[in-house]
Design brief:
The protein starts with 8 loop residues before the first strand and ends with a helix. It has helices at 17-28, 39-48, 91-95, 116-119, 129-141, 182-192, 205-216, 219-226, 230-235, 237-256, 267-272, 280-286, 293-306, 312-331, and strands spanning 9-13, 32-36, 50-54, 57-61, 64-66, 77-80, 104-108, 146-152, 155-159, 162-165, 172-177, 198-201. An eight-stranded mixed beta sheet has the order 5-2-1-6-7-8-11-12. A four-stranded mixed beta sheet has the order 4-3-10-9. The chain is an alpha/beta fold.
């Protein structure tokens, strides 16, 4: 096994905000980066590379850019940073050209991830399209190759190939092997220690999923339903109270899943610690793009039902958000 810092072959599948950020950092650390993108993003990155604005620093990299995995070489690590709305049950097969005997595949996503039932017995009886897709992905890749990741990094796409990191001092990745592969974990840990990113090999990755959900389950749906911002939630007593109710319900679902998370997490403290950053889900909603509602709303509600956890605030808000999303789908605009 090469020592930490040894140049690796890394593919980034999905050049959104997070994927672009990682592609720049990995390339500047000296790794051989292949970026897989489509449409305007492919053209922009192939022509001009990727620019990352991190605070007052501007970073630039020009990774090898391809449209499909069939154009890429075998990799040491494949980072899949596409949103759950873009997952398909053929994804494992699509990635096959980049997979070698020791390739690790790291999936980074928001909400309840597709690999959740593989690690949580309580979710295996829940019938969600997201989980059915996951079953097929694991059949094609095998769990020993797969790593699940939870990332804290506030990024936004300014234009294709140009990304802003709004948390230059707060970039952290928690990860763990879905199939208990120490080699895959070691490869990923060694890689991330070479870039400007805090990395934690997590002993309980599902708890980290729920910790991030405490924000993503609560803030975006209020913003969508009320046409509000995170600042509005902080400064409006009624919205702050609604956030508190959602937070308590989210914690109850997590506890029913076996994750205590700490009983001292308070709404005001959590809101105060949020960066001044518009969540990607809100950006997608305002732009008329699909949002990760199944992973962020539907899956937690299904888990609550399976464990008999009452969620009146979440149920009401989910109904409102679902209606607004259906209207958006019909009309093509956020109203």
């Amino acid at each position: 096994m090469p020592a930490a810092g040894y140049p690796r072959r890394i593919a980034i599948f999905g050049l959104g905000a997070i994927g672009s950020h990682l592609a720049v950092k990995c390339a500047l650390a000296g790794h051989r980066v292949t970026a897989i993108a489509r449409g305007e993003t492919y053209k922009a990155v192939a022509d001009r590379g990727i620019t990352l604005l991190a605070g007052k620093t501007e970073l630039h990299a020009e990774p090898v850019t391809v449209r499909t995995p069939t154009e890429a070489e075998e990799q040491d690590l494949v980072v899949v940073s596409i949103k759950s709305t873009s997952l398909t049950d053929t994804l494992g097969h699509e990635l096959a050209p980049m997979i070698g005997a020791s390739t690790a595949v790291l999936f980074i996503a928001n909400g309840i991830p597709w690999w959740y039932p593989h690690m949580a017995v309580s979710a295996r009886s829940i019938n969600l399209p997201l989980f059915r897709i996951g079953e097929r992905i694991l059949r094609d890749l095998t769990p020993e190759r797969v790593l699940g990741g939870v990332i804290y990094s506030a990024n936004s796409v300014l234009t294709p190939g140009r990304v802003s990191n709004n948390s230059p001092d707060r970039n952290r990745l928690f990860f763990a092997s879905v199939g208990s592969s120490a080699d895959a974990e070691r490869t990923t840990e060694e890689l991330f220690t070479t870039i400007d990113f805090e990395v934690v090999r997590s002993a309980n990755i599902l708890e980290q999923v729920w910790r991030k959900l405490l924000i993503s389950m609560c803030v975006p749906p209020i913003c969508i339903a009320a046409g509000a911002t995170a600042t509005d939630i902080r400064e409006t007593p009624a919205l702050r109270a609604l956030f508190g109710n959602l937070l308590r319900e989210a914690q109850e679902i997590a506890r029913a899943q076996g994750h205590l998370l700490g009983l001292d997490i308070e709404a005001d403290a959590l809101l105060a610690g949020m960066p001044d950053h518009t969540p990607s889900m809100i950006v997608d909603y305002l732009a008329g793009r699909p949002i990760e509602s199944e992973a962020t709303f539907a899956a937690p509600v299904a888990l609550a039902r399976a464990t008999c956890v009452p969620t009146p605030a979440l149920d009401t808000l989910f109904a409102v958000v679902s209606h607004r999303l259906s209207v958006q789908t019909r009309t093509g605009s956020a109203t």
